[in-house]
Amino acid sequence: MSNFFIAVIRSLIPIVVGWIVGLLVSLNVHVDPSITDGLILSASALAASLYYIGVAWLERQFPWFGWLLGVARNPVYASAPRHSA
After folding, report:
1. Pairwise CA distance, residues 52 & 12, whole Å
2. Using CA atoms, how far apart are residues 6 and 12, in angstroms rounded to an integer?
3. Residue-wise pLDDT tens digits, 11-65
4. What are the residues whose beta carbons fall under 8 Å from the beta carbon of 4, sequence distance 6 or more?
5. What does pTM read for this prediction?
């Protein structure tokens, strides 16, 4: 699997988790409709961020946790060529 697809998968999984959390929040939110969308979007973004950070941290200690991001290996990026001035 190419590094590009590994990076995409590892980015999309937390977004999906955040989306699911947002859906769950929307089921139980009974507030002013003018702030409901912002609340759900904020909860989704926070959940996705915390999920990625948590799994990435756990993966450093226990590499098999990487599967919670869809692929249990980090993409490897080539270093950019240096340009002389």
Report:
1. 10
2. 10
3. 899 999 888 888 887 787 677 777 877 887 888 889 999 999 999 999 999 999 9
4. 75
5. 0.71
Q: Are 21 and 44 in contact (CB under 8 A)?
A: yes
Q: H/E/C letters for each residue in the chain?
A: CCHHHHHHHHHHHHHHHHHHHHHHHHHHCCCCHHHHHHHHHHHHHHHHHHHHHHHHHHHHHCHHHHHHHCCCCCCCCCCCCCCCC
Position of tokens 């190419």? 2
CB count within 10 Å of CB 40 equals 18
Distance CA 14, CA 48 (A): 5
The whole-angstrom separation of Cα 73 and Cα 65 is 10
